[in-house]
Amino acid sequence: MTATMSYAYAVARDDDDTLARALSGLPGVADAPVHLVRQGEMVVAVSPVPEQDFQESALRAHLEDLEWLESVARAHHRVIGALAERTTVLPLRLATVYLDDERVRQMLDARQEAFAGRLSELTAHTEWGVKIYVETPAATERPAAPPAAADLSPGRAYLSHRRAQRHAREDAYREAEEVARRVEDAARHHAVDRVQHRAQQGELARGPGENVINDAYLVPVGHAEGFRADVLRAAEGLTGVRVEVTGPWAPYSFATPPETEPMKRAAP
C-alpha cells in the first residue's frame, strides 16, 4: 500500500455543514478525493497524496518540473475555487502537506482563533490582480532597415533608428510609471489592502509586453465593478502600456494578516 500524506488546500468556517457537498466528486491533487478535517466550526480541505512525491527532497525536485507544478496548481486552485463559491476561505500555500489528518487537526486547533479572526476580516472581500505591461521592441531586437536618407550614410541611418527605438522604450517606461500612479490613485477609492508581487518573467509572463507591475488588491464585493472600471481607465491616452485586471479570486495574497498598515480607502 502506497504511503500517503495529507495535502491541505484552504481553511474555512463551515457552521452549516454545507462545504462537504461543494467538494463531493471534486478531484484534488493526484486526482484524489477531497474531504474536510474539522475542529469545531473550522475546517481544512485536504486530500491524500503520495508520500514519495511530497516528502521534502522529492518535493524540491518536483518544484523544478513546470509540467508537474502546473498540474498541482490547477488542482489546488480548483478545490479553493469550489470552496470560495460557498464561503470565505483562507487559501494555503501551494504544496502545503502534513504527515496525516491528525497533524492537520492539531494545526487547526492551535491556530483556530487566528484563522477565525482573519476569515471575519476577509468576509465579503475578493482579490483582484492588476498587471501593467510595457509593450516596446525588445532591446536585443534588430530594427528594420531604415529608409535611405540623402544626408545619412547607411551606418548613421542605422544608429539614428536605434536611438529612436531607445527613446521609444524610455517613453514607454515613463508612461508605465504614470499608469502605475493612476492605478494606485484609482485603487484607493475601492481597495482596502494591496500586496506587491514580483513582476512575472520568462514562462510565467503570458501575453505581449514586459510585465513591470504585478499587484493584488483586496476589494469589497460592492466595489468590485467600480474598481475594475477605474483601474482599466488608467492607461487611456497613453501608448505602449497595457493594463490587465483579473478576478475576482479567493484572497490568496491576503490569507495572512498584513505585516504593515493596510491601505486606506479614499473617501468618496
TrEMBL record:
Where is this protein primarily located?
A: other
What are the recorded Gene Ontology BP terms?
gas vesicle organization
Localization recorded for this chain is:
Gas vesicle
**Which domain of life does the UniProt lineage start with?**
Bacteria
Task: Mention any one GO cellular component term assigned to this protein in its UniProt record.
Answer: gas vesicle
Q: Which keywords annotate this record?
A: Gas vesicle
Q: Which Pfam families does the entry link to? A: GvpL_GvpF (PF06386)
PANTHER family assigned to the protein according to its UniProt record, in alphabetical order: PROTEIN GVPL 2
Similarity field: Belongs to the gas vesicle GvpF/GvpL family.
User: What protein name applies here?
Assistant: GvpL/GvpF family gas vesicle protein
Organism this protein belongs to: Streptomyces sioyaensis
